[in-house]
Amino acid sequence: MNKDFLQSAAGRKLGQRYLALKESLVDLGWLIHGSVTPNHPGHWRWTTKVKSKTVTLALSQEQTLLFQEAIANHRNLESILRQMRAISQEVLLKSAPGTRKRPARKIIPKPA
After folding, report:
1. Residue at 103 is within a domain
2. Residue 65 lies in a domain
3. Beta strand residue intervals within the chain, DSSP E
């Protein structure tokens, strides 16, 4: 790995951003995938996918609050991971020489 990029200002900035994102993972609480929607006034349901099948479960008011927070945490986790992947890709591509690109093909028009 070419450490020159990591030692550049841009590389250090990306490294700091990556570490900040990594540290933010520690603060996440419970995680759950799915959505919480009202079923009837005062009644809620949680819907998720399990093995390509939709599963729905009725929730109490207390469970609804917990599930909403866990779903928000899960979405936050996914956002953090997307950012970490993007930074990783940029750093890895710039930290080592890539392959030589093929020269562009010349397109010779066919005679009419």
Report:
1. no
2. yes
3. 35-40, 43-50, 53-59
Structure tokens at 72: 């928000």
> From CA 57, how far away is CA 63, in angstroms rounded?
11
The pTM of this model reads 0.77
- The residue segments making up the domain with residue 87 are 8-95
Match 């030692």 to its residue by tokens: 7
Please name which of 62, 95, 80 lies closest in space to residue 18, comparing C-alpha atoms.
Answer: 80
- Give the chain's domain count: 1
Kindly tell me if the per-residue pLDDT of 109 is higher than 80: no
Are 73 and 31 in contact, with CB atoms under 8 Å apart? yes
Question: Is pLDDT at 2 greater than 70 in this prediction?
Answer: no
